Amino acid sequence: MSIEIKGVHQAFHGKVVLDNLNLTIEPNKIYGLLGRNGAGKSTLLNIISDRVPARSGAVTMDGQSVHENNAALGNLYLMSEVNLYPPRNKVDQLFKKTANFYGGFDTAYAHRLAGEFGLDLNARFGKLSTGYRSIFKLIIALCVPVDYVFLDEPVLGLDANHRDLFYQELLSAYGERPRTFVISTHLIEEVANLIEHVFVLDDHRIIINGDVSDVLAKAYAISGPQADVDRYTAGLNIIGADHLAGIAVTYVYGTLDNSRPIPDTVQVANQDLQKLFINLTNTTKEVSTNVN
Amino acid sequence: MSTKLRATTRYLFLEQLKQLGQGYLALLVIFVILPLLVALVTGNITNFNLLKTVGNFSLGAFLALFLFILNVTTYDVFKLLIQNGIARRTYWAARVICLVVLSVLGEAIVGLYYYGVYAPMHNLTTQRALSQTAYSLYADFLGKNLAVNLLAGAVFSIILYILIGTAGMLIGSFLALFSKWVQWLIIIILPFAGFSLLMVGISNVSGYSNYDFSGVEAFFKFLIGYPQNATAGLFNPTVPTITLLLLSAVMAALAYYCSQHLKIKQ
């Protein structure tokens, strides 16, 4: 049981937004979907949830097309920045409406979470601040009985305390009932320890698709005097460089040359996910041909 | 009926029923309570006739307008439903079911008011009152049995409401495909363009004094069920009823086609 995205291509007003995308989203995993602004993350999530039909290609769940498929659409939930709820409805009314459409909505848990986040059940959705709208949608995302939850900028407008509370609740909910979460965010450091698998979308294509541990195992930061670093990294897949007080740091993605001895003046460390992302998406043209 | 269709239909129906109730309440406030209050404040209460006011409502016209507006509203409901995992096809099917049920229910309310309140207050017999409805041309076609005529009149009205509702559904689904700006453009330009075309057509035709309209006339007579030398009340409702049903089906099908292309606007 998985979601398959095959050859999805999308363009708006003649501008390509997604270019022949192929992905598999497996059950009971936490994914990170990373990409710069305009990379096509939200469009991809909108296509998966059938909010926007793909121009070409297909999205399937268990081999069945998601398009116009109540069973598939009822087994996924997309929490996005766009507000699709009626602004005049009260929070508790919207919980009831969600329960009507998604049978098995955990209302008790929703009320408990609303209490923890300080969300007023009698407040009208349209009157909520950006942060509380996000909280409202996050609560629904955690309480709907679906196997696939997509979170597009889930912590938009949330303060640090609420973000921390959300991450705790996400892990707790996942622990109690494993399901798939796909988190699309710009706050990479905050989710780096949550996600198991990462997709990096750049220039409308997937340039990284792998388990976080495998991806980071190939992401190196090689530092030392410029000449020594240059000599050691010659011919490797260099994705970026920094210079700090006479020390050069060169970022490499891919396997190192094991036959090449590491000079005493050179240090080899692993990059973190955010640094890797920045380097990869800063050097799109050079990297995209080498990283897959 | 699938679980999702049942849930969607139930949701839409309860919402629409609530809106219909609010509409009737608004009618009562605007046409009864406010004039009553004004009469009280201005000291003209002796000139205010509550029974006359209550007996002059056009609930049928109100229901038709309500069903049209209700079905024009498409995008806001679509947003909520797609957020909750409901397919476009299910939304369309639920709307059609709700339209039929609400037309029947609405006609029952209209009928009760019209024959129970309006007709007695205007000293009309039930058959005479029937002759003043949209069914007037066919009111005596099925004979003298009042119950049969009333039932036929009600069915005819229900089909008319369904036609008006599906027309609203088609317009709403079509407009929902465009941005707000383009929607306004269409709303302003289309009627103007249609009117202009009509004027051009009329002016062209009027130049040909010997143009034979008998074919058009015969076609319209056929559509309204006009038999040779028949008087109003004895027209045949079969063709108009079938025509209305066919038009409703075509509009519902076109609305389905448009709704298949609905998407969340960025």
Automatic annotation (TrEMBL), chain A:
Checking SMART domains in the record gives:
AAA
GO MF: ATP binding
Enumerate the UniProt keywords alphabetically.
ATP-binding, Nucleotide-binding
Q: Which domain of life is it from?
A: Bacteria
- Asked if the Swiss-Prot or TrEMBL record annotates the protein with the keyword ATP-binding, the reply is yes
Q: Which InterPro entries match?
A: AAA+_ATPase, ABC_transporter-like_ATP-bd, P-loop_NTPase
Q: Where is the ABC transporter domain?
A: 3-228
In Swiss-Prot or TrEMBL terms, this protein is called ATP-binding cassette domain-containing protein
Automatic annotation (TrEMBL), chain B:
- Transmembrane regions listed in the UniProt entry: 21-45, 57-78, 90-115, 150-177, 184-202, 239-258
Coiled coil (residue ranges): none
- Provide the protein name: ABC transporter permease
Q: Identify the keywords attached in UniProt to this record, alphabetized.
A: Membrane, Transmembrane, Transmembrane helix
